[in-house]
Amino acid sequence: MKTHSTNMLGACRAAMSWRTSGTNRALSEDNLLWAPLCINKGNDASRIPFIYRQPLDWTRYTAAILNSVVSTENPDDAFPDLMPSEEEYLRAQLMEQFSKGVAKRFQIVSSNTPNAVRIRLSLVEAKSNIPVLSTLFRLDPLGGAINLYRAWRGDEGVLLGSITYWVEVHDALTGNLLLAYVGRGFPHPFDIMASLGKLTAAERGTARAPQDFLRIIEHKG
Q: What is the pLDDT of residues 90-117, one digit of tens each?
């Protein structure tokens, strides 16, 4: 199956809009969502809410080409409280962290080979910490109870920043789509250090992103 990144990025934003709205509208290529992308009903749904993957033996691939994709259709609300320089910083952090993670499993190459995948990565949305309140809410008894519940569910902490990103993996030679998903990166709800600083939680989300990618292709959890 071949596809185009611009369509996939649009599907990613549509998926997140659907997830936020909580409605039961149909998911389809023409209406809301690129058709093969499915709602993830697994235990990792809070971090990987939507996914498409082919059943295959990933050990056949030993090399990877990693590309950063920047959409030309960024909505105004994708980075509501970030300066352009902060957005670019998080984008660079995501690419750097992902490169390090991918290099643990694949040889990073620059040209197509029979055993290579092409990974396209895009930062779709980022939210910053709420100054002061994000830290106080980690210490407050009520906030602690709420965050305890969110930690049990595997969700992000209240008032903490996060990132939403898109991963798309193709066979480098054939162009066939092997894996695509909407990913969300955020620290543990009780990570007080992640609440300090405007971008700290979002930064930690970029570090979590490659961990989730490797887990997915290794079929863990």
A: 999 999 999 999 999 999 998 888 899 9
Measured from the Cβ of residue 202, the count of other Cβ atoms closer than 10 Å reads 29
25-55 burial string, b = 16+ CB within 10 Å, else e?
A: eebeeeebbbeebeebeeebbebbbbbbbee
CA atoms within 13 Å, Cβ hemisphere of 163: 34
What would you measure as the largest C-alpha separation in the chain, in angstroms? 56
Helix (H, G, I), strand (E, B) or coil at 44: coil
* CA 144/CA 135 separation, integer angstroms: 11
Beta pairing partners, 168 = 120, 180
Which CATH class name applies to 5-217? alpha beta
User: How far is it, in rounded angstroms, from Cα 26 to Cα 81?
Assistant: 31
Strand pairing category for 107-108 and 162-171: unpaired
pLDDT, tens only, 172-194 = 999 999 999 999 988 765 566 66
Sheet holding 177-185, edge to edge: 38-39, 50-53, 177-185, 162-171, 116-127, 63-68, 107-108
Domain ranges of the chain: 5-217
